[in-house]
# Entry
Amino acid sequence: MPDLAVTPDPTPHPTPDPPPGSLSRRRWASGLAVAVVLPTLLSAGLVVLDDRLDLATQALLLVLPTVVAALVGGLAPAVVAAVLGSVLLAYLFTPPERTWEVAGATNVVGLVVQLAVGLSTAAAVDLAARRARQAEEAETRRRALAAVDRTRTALLAAVGHDLRTPLAAAGASIATLRSDDLRLSDANTAELLEGAQQSLDRLGALVADLLDVSRLRAGAMAVVLQPVDLEEVCARALDDLAAAATVTLGRAADVPDVRADPGLLERVVVNLVANALRHTPGGRPPRLVARRTDGMVELRVVDHGPGIPAERREEVFAPFQRLGDTDPASGIGLGLALSRGLVEAMGGTLLPEDTPGGGLTMVVALRPAPGGHAGLVPGRRERGETPEASP
# Structure
């Protein structure tokens, strides 16, 4: 029985944002631990060096845990560190030592000054750290807004062009057919109708891709998981690609069926092979290679094109990004973004790798179906051929 799975909404219950510059509870707890442990350890070390350091130096050193606690956990742990440091200074190092008595007004003033310096340092360090965190958070928000703005601009530019082009072509064909000033032959009429149909099909595919991307982001994409034969999926995908002249299928005699949605997986293969065909040089067609590795089944789409620099590989999976590809036939840059979303909705991954000798390899990894049989036999598939049956 196929399983019906709906991709979960990644943010079903949004939580309110914390105040700018605020610290997490973990940071606060870590700061409190520092405020207790660090003055204690430092005091133990100063006891060993008691004869070598004067009281002023010891008081100055016991301010350091306050600074560290403020950086780690904020103001409250820093106050704890300052008070604890003053208490340890009074008990261990202020004459008479190892008692709670403080001899002389100078020592009393010294303890008060040490506590005041510690508290002032805690407040100053906490304020500086808070402002630094606020600046970092503001920069993060600025970058996020800039990315959204770039996506919006790319969407308007890409969709604006790709919507106008098929609409204009279909409109021109229909206007010609309706013109009373022209006498069209049956062949010309059929050609115009076919052109209008192709333009409308292209427009429909564009709208379908946009809707699917929206569904994936909203967690509303329905996925029917069932055992799927990779050979059959690849065969249907190659049949859908009118531009695919020759595609080589790799040897994978022990590859089992995968757990996937057959329709969605076919769309993924079509998108990846079409992308590879656009960038691979003539005479070196893409290859489909399937293998089983680390408990997963991998389908590799290998091309020998220019490839993509490692630092820019994740950009190709962003919607409406084509990395300088200006070919109108390449669409609006949704193919790879949609492919990754569909693969992840089926519980798999889609990652780019280098092709040995140059080029790019897209690796689709899916879970094997329970009890799946082997598929995707070796050989070469030419357009129009029927794939060989498994022996």
Q: What stands out?
A: The two ends are 27 Å apart (CA to CA). The beta strands are 3-6, 222-228, 246-249, 258-260, 287-293, 296-302, 349-354, 360-366, 379-382. The first strand starts at residue 3 and ends at 6.
